[in-house]
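ok so i was messing around last nite and threw this chain in just to see what happens. nothing serious, just curious
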Amino acid sequence: MRDYNTKQKQLVIGFFEENRDRDFTVAEVAECLSGKVGFSSVYRITASLSAQGRLKKSFREEGDKAAVYRYFDPDACSGHLHLKCEECGALTHLSEKDTMEIEKIIGSGFTLKSDKTTLYGVCQNCVKRND
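result:
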């Protein structure tokens, strides 16, 4: 199947690149790009980019029907752990040094797959907002 590089596709890619540490449903992307890219185009483009490995597909909570998508750069997301805020969805990349410290705490006999490991909690911004 031929992969066209349309203006709409570039807008969707640009949106995810500008918001690389956030998750979005197709409906949220379509709303943010309203007037520029329609819902069905966003749906097709995100499905295609996900199949190509350029977007990471997941679900916000177990049992959710609407998938969320996030920009994925394999070079920037390997060799370290991730922290994900359960309130705003922000993703933080831990340094390799901090990742190694956590691996030391866990100890021998267990090897983390740091490129697939995300720890969930609440980010500083959300903690401040809720105080």
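not much to say yet. The mean pLDDT is 86.
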